[in-house]
Amino acid sequence: SKGCDSVATLILTINNTSSSTTNTTICSNQLPYLWNGINRTAAGTYTFSTINSQGCDSVANLNLTVLPKPNAGNDITSLCGTTSSFTLTGNPTGGAWSAQSTNPAGVTLTGNSLSTTSNSVSGTFNFIYTLNGCTDTVALIISSIGNPPQIAINGGSNPICKNSTLQLCPTIWG
Question: CA torsion, points 116, 121, 122, 126, in degrees to nearest 10?
């Protein structure tokens, strides 16, 4: 004030902005994908802007890749346990098959082929097809009644002629 010099000192702190990028890969059955409070429903690159703890701009980027869910096929039903082998076909090809640990005993998985250990195996057996970390499940349902009955037909010892009638008498055992 009266012609005297004064000195003012400014202490300036410059805070940095912040940014981050997240690369995420999920399976299609995991959609929607929740990111920063927003449900993302498709693959893509997304940006979220906010203010960081220092009061500066903060930008978060998400690169979301969505892989298709593989198809393990339709469930397989076998009555009486008469079929002893089955082939599993996953789509697209190139995945791996595994058996659920809770399966009952009696069905063996080798590659994509299933085989039963006997005709009296019964139960529901679940198998998982995995491709690129994505999975689908198929069930093999076997209803077994044990050994199927045997039938013998006795028509007598007389020859059978054309336009003749023959009475058949079946005998069932087993």
Answer: -30
